[in-house]
């Protein structure tokens, strides 16, 4: 922490001078999450709050698709991401051409796209969703069948909760796909009474054996409301670190998995982002309108 102090001081000063705010995802490390972030949350909260930001500059402490979404919703503001390499295996798993082929194979079936995608894929979609509102979005369309891309496991997990038929794609989150049902059984044996929460990007066999599944914000709320004596969050490691700060009485059991993309963001490159105005996130005007439409339709629900 002491070694972070100079960066924290500099970032707080730069934020004031540049009229900047920092939006941080729940998977950012505690020194970012608790010391310099102005707005924190899951993907849905970050998108919702991006609309309300009253600043000239937004620094997105998270991955590229989140910065792109913030830019879509704030076309006139400067949006910076401290490391352009902060990608996402889900966003990498599908292209707009894939979406066009899916539409050909399933004529008339609406395309619901997880926000963990490029703006170009969003532009080729009817509406977006996050893990926090996926079922609501599916049921809002009033149709018997939807395409839900690109996370196969999220689609399968939502399919268990709704009568709407869901056609999935084959994308996976490289962090959550690593958990399996045996992990859940081993945890129950090793930590009697443990409450097991899983992110819906986990394989369905994991969600089926967990006590509860939800987005990162929903998991955090669950801990706050139910205050389990011991809990494990089957998700990215910083999640437990950040939630644990507010709940000293709860025992947070690991394992967890690190997201190498989220971990590219550091105090030091946030400071550089504000000092050197880098790396600016832009969206091709040819697709920005359609991509924004898909995000705004989601936010209207
Ligand atoms: P949420 O915070 O929306 O649950 O998303 C998890 C995630 O993996 C984001 O990259
Ligand atoms: Fe993508 Fe998974 Fe990392 Fe989230 S945790 S950014 S879904 S790879």
UniProtKB/TrEMBL annotation:
Any one GO molecular function term: transferase activity
Catalytic activity entry = iminosuccinate + dihydroxyacetone phosphate = quinolinate + phosphate + 2 H2O + H(+)
Q: Name the PROSITE patterns for this protein.
A: PTS_EIIA_TYPE_4
Q: Which Pfam families match?
A: NadA (PF02445)
List, for all copies, the residue spans of the domain called PTS EIIA type-4. Answer: 17-167
| Family recorded in the similarity comment | Belongs to the quinolinate synthase family. Type 2 subfamily.
- Name assigned to this protein: Quinolinate synthase
């Amino acid at each position: 922490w002491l070694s972070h102090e100079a960066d924290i001081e500099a970032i707080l000063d730069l934020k004031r001078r540049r009229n900047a705010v920092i939006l941080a995802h729940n998977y950012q490390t505690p020194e970012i999450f608790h010391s310099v972030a102005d707005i924190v949350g899951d993907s849905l909260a970050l998108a919702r709050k991006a609309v309300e930001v009253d600043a000239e500059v937004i620094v997105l402490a998270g991955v590229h698709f989140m910065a792109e979404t913030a830019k879509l919703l704030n076309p006139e503001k400067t949006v910076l991401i401290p490391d352009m390499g902060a990608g996402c295996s889900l966003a990498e798993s599908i292209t707009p051409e894939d979406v066009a082929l899916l539409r050909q194979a399933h004529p008339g079936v609406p395309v619901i796209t997880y926000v963990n995608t490029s703006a170009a894929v969003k532009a080729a979609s009817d509406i977006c969703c996050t893990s926090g509102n996926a079922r609501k979005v599916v049921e809002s369309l009033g149709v018997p069948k939807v395409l839900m891309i690109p996370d196969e496991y999220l689609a399968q997990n939502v399919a268990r909760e709704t009568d709407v038929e869901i056609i999935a794609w084959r994308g996976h989150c490289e962090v959550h796909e690593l958990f399996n049902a045996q992990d859940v059984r081993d945890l129950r044996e090793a930590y009697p009474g443990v409450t097991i929460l899983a992110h819906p990007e986990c394989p369905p066999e994991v969600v089926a054996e967990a006590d509860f599944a939800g987005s990162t914000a929903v998991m955090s709320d669950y801990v706050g409301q139910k205050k389990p004596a011991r809990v494990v969050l089957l998700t990215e490691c910083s999640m437990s670190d950040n939630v644990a700060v507010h709940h000293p009485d709860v025992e947070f059991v690991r394992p967890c998995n690190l997201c190498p993309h989220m971990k590219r963001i550091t105090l030091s490159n946030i400071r550089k982002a504000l000092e050197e105005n880098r790396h600016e996130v832009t969206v091709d005007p040819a697709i920005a309108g359609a991509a924004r439409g898909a995000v705004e339709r989601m936010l209207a629900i």
